[in-house]
Design goal:
Blueprint: H1 3-42, H2 44-67, E1 71-72, E2 75-76, H3 79-112, H4 116-125, H5 132-143, H6 147-178, H7 182-190, H8 193-234, H9 240-250, H10 256-273, H11 276-302, H12 310-324, H13 326-330, H14 332-343, H15 350-356, H16 368-373, H17 383-386
Antiparallel strand pairs: 1-2
Length: about 400
């Protein structure tokens, strides 16, 4: 064999090796994704509680730092005292909210069976314009649904709320106990003060964006829930408080939550009143409230700090809804924000961050220092910058 033939044979053999390595990498990535997805589904109760605890911890961490700097006369409020005070407040708020939600849910579930027959007839009457045969067929189909079974299932799932609340409180307490050593652990883990500082700035940027989103969403959802309560109370409808609370909760789910809340309020009004005009009026008023709060007030308060792709939000809602159910849909946007900012710091993952952002600018809302210094992966950083400090 001549040298030219050997070169041609070796040249064709090298691409085959590269293709084989690339195929193996893709297969390993698919297997790793399957394992992670399996663990997410199997440990969803613990992971959901941990995610909520981390969000609550990040919301109150800055407040604790400010409180720990205050002085009362000659006495200064220590860090551990402020942390204990914060844990007690979080525990009280969570337990109170859980009690209110369970009380309203029990009220709705206990009276659902009372309105079951009336609600079935009211829904069937919506198809009366198609003929009596269609109305009777719809009524018989609805009556075949075992409402009592769904009520028992909902009551059983509601009972898990208190267990999740206790677990979240425990996680928050341990996070506050570890917060003093977080910077030290980060420096020892990275073995480079500059790299640890960059990671710390990235975490701070994620916390600020998620905190801003949650505070605005909480304020807008609270006002929306109060307005829905007023509309239901003025129209002399039952479950006014329950509809206000459910609207407040469902509005945390982007896009889909407001639609579901409006339809639920209109359906409850139609079942109670039995009058299409009254239900239509409540539907229109609820829709106007949701439109103004969601499309005018919410974007105005949110500003440019959180610019996510609408299609990306829908994909995130579908994915986390399939993995973690309804709690996953509540956590979809905070997780999406974290993924977008982390991916924006690495050149190989930056296309993912660009797709998740609305205008293709994932660093928008970050300071110049955060956007410039953190977005420099280890592979592209100079060798002396990656070397640990002496």
């Amino acid at each position: 064999m001549t040298s030219r033939q050997q070169e041609s044979t070796g040249g064709s053999y090298r691409p085959r090796i590269g293709e084989r390595v690339r195929l193996q990498s893709w297969l390993l990535g698919i297997i790793a994704f399957g394992i992670v997805l399996f663990l997410l589904v199997q440990a969803r109760f613990i992971l959901i509680s941990l995610a909520i605890a981390i969000i609550l911890f990040s919301l109150t961490s800055d407040a604790i730092n400010s409180i720990s700097k205050l002085r009362v006369g000659r006495w200064r409020i220590t860090n551990w005292l402020a942390s204990v005070f914060a844990v007690l407040i979080i525990a009280s708020v969570l337990l109170t909210l859980s009690g209110v939600v369970l009380a309203q849910l029990n009220t709705v579930l206990s009276t659902t069976l009372t309105y079951a027959d009336q609600g079935q007839r009211a829904i069937a009457q919506m198809f009366s314009w198609m003929g009596e045969d269609v109305e009777e067929a719809v009524l018989s189909s609805i009556r075949s649904i075992e409402v009592s079974g769904y009520v028992r299932t909902a009551a059983g799932q509601a009972g898990d709320l208190l267990s999740a609340t206790v677990l979240v409180i425990l996680f928050v307490g341990f996070l506050f106990a570890e917060r003093v050593w977080f910077d030290t652990k980060l420096e020892n883990l990275m073995k480079d003060p500059e790299q640890a500082a960059r990671v710390s700035r990235l975490i701070g940027s994620i916390n600020r964006r998620v905190n801003h989103y949650l505070m605005v969403k909480t304020a807008v959802s609270a006002v929306t829930g109060v307005l829905i309560f007023v509309v239901m109370r003025v129209m002399n409808m039952e479950f006014a408080a329950a509809m206000g609370i459910f609207t407040f909760v469902l509005n945390y789910i982007p896009n889909v939550g407001s639609i579901a809340a409006t339809l639920m309020v209109a359906l409850v009004a139609y079942v109670q009143a039995g009058d299409p005009s009254t239900a239509l009026l409540i539907f229109v008023l609820s829709g106007m409230i949701q439109f103004v709060m969601g499309n005018v007030i919410d974007p105005m308060l949110m500003g440019r700090a959180l610019r996510l792709s609408s299609f990306g939000i829908i994909i995130s809602l579908a994915f986390w809804g399939a993995v973690w159910g309804i709690p996953g849909m509540f956590l979809a946007v905070p997780i999406m924000v974290a993924v977008m900012l982390v991916c924006s710091q690495f050149e190989t993952l930056r296309p993912v961050a660009v797709l998740l952002s609305r205008e293709g600018l994932p660093e928008q809302g970050m300071t110049g220092e955060e956007a410039g210094e953190t977005r420099q992966p280890d592979e592209t950083r100079p060798a002396d910058a990656r070397r640990p400090a002496a």
